[in-house]
């Protein structure tokens, strides 16, 4: 998680790093990691044991896991980094199959963080249902610290959530804050050979807590058809939690051959339009995330008659919506973004009560290309300087091109471009993505309110990120800064 924007260093893909990342992704996808259970451990012990494992070379990915949540934690480099993770977030995945006649629940403590959720998916990476923190019903005598005004440091913070092998109710509202509702069940229907998949997410853990927000990981509670109850480690064999992930590789990235096809199409369009960096444009164009066909159309220059909302690919979070732009250094070495900042709760410093705002969370991320789906770094709301006028400025560049005034002390956030660009074919390309989480009905400028492509600027108004390309020296001259003396 990014804690100090001024200290961000660019993620670089180099020799052994590429091999290590490839091996890590294979391990993540195939579920080949043989992991010791951490169910009975405290978060501090989990971290200590993991650190010892890394030092000894026996555990390639540090962070708490258990036999149920055995894939993860995924986040930014240097660990599992695929499908455009938010660098302020940790993700765990569970693959399992509930035996015939049995019932499953997961039990855990609410973490000390901005957000958490459990989301089910199908074999193509399409989300089925999200049960976010505020929808979870605490056990009797406990409280939910994610409700507005709640005590974030409440001692009794336990919840339990049933997992059902069935589809969720039709026409269920997603992406917008549904405060006042509760969910007792997460629907995770079986697919393929009977597999079920759930991702557990924690965004913006409190300062000083581990990846789990100081809560440890939820544990499975399996009730067999004969009434026998298996908890934690004892439940994993019956759930077959070590089974390989039945993965459609296209859910994690655009296939490489397709990506090269798209680049060739973009070159033809760019030559015809005299736009050498197409689909990157100057000024930049921001596109709402729709389905994969819509993404392809950005490269081919052929608008779709009826584009569809994004339903899969990259294992998205149903509580988020995104706009993105494709950036190219061919248009300038320094990319500058300016926009109005939505309000959000403030939680990083362990605030005593849960606040409210326009959104629950927002972030800006610098990513590699669609065939790589790797995040370089992100900055999220609470760590982005906002001026008295309510606007932020973010600079995106390679480390070597970073303006000297692109630091927090000058009111400027900075995000890196990777030295190998999209990580696949074009060293000049970076994908920049703005994420909005759980907009409220009283905030009409959330990305979730955009009903069709082309309406991004109209709906978002001042919250639409304006962008321009500059040189390093031009940016330093345009915004002179003497930290501590301004």
Please give a handful of descriptors for the protein shown.
signal, alpha+beta, single chain, disordered N terminus, 486 residues, 7 helices, 5-stranded mixed sheet, 5-stranded antiparallel sheet
Textual characterization of the structure:
- This protein has a domain at 250-478.
- It has seven helices and 19 strands.
- The longest helix is centred in the middle third of the chain and has 18 residues, at 256-273.
- It has helices at 15-30, 43-56, 236-239, 256-273, 292-300, 456-460, 472-478; strands spanning 71-74, 89-96, 103-109, 113-121, 127-132, 158-164, 185-187, 196-205, 219-223, 229-231, 287-288, 320-328, 334-340, 361-367, 375-380, 391-397, 413-416, 429-437, 466-470.
- Helices cover 15% and strands 24% of the residues.
- 45% of the residues are buried.
- It is an alpha+beta fold.
- The model is unreliable at 1-56 (pLDDT under 50).
- The strands form four sheets. A five-stranded antiparallel β-sheet has the order 1-2-8-4-5, with no helix packed on it. The protein has a five-stranded mixed β-sheet with strand order 7-6-3-9-10.
- Residues 1-40 form the signal peptide.
- Keywords: Signal.
Specify the structural class. alpha+beta
Low-confidence stretches: 1-56
Distance, first to last CA = 29 Å
| Major sheet | 5 strands, antiparallel
Number of helices: 7
Number of strands: 19
Signal peptide: 1-40
Keywords: Signal
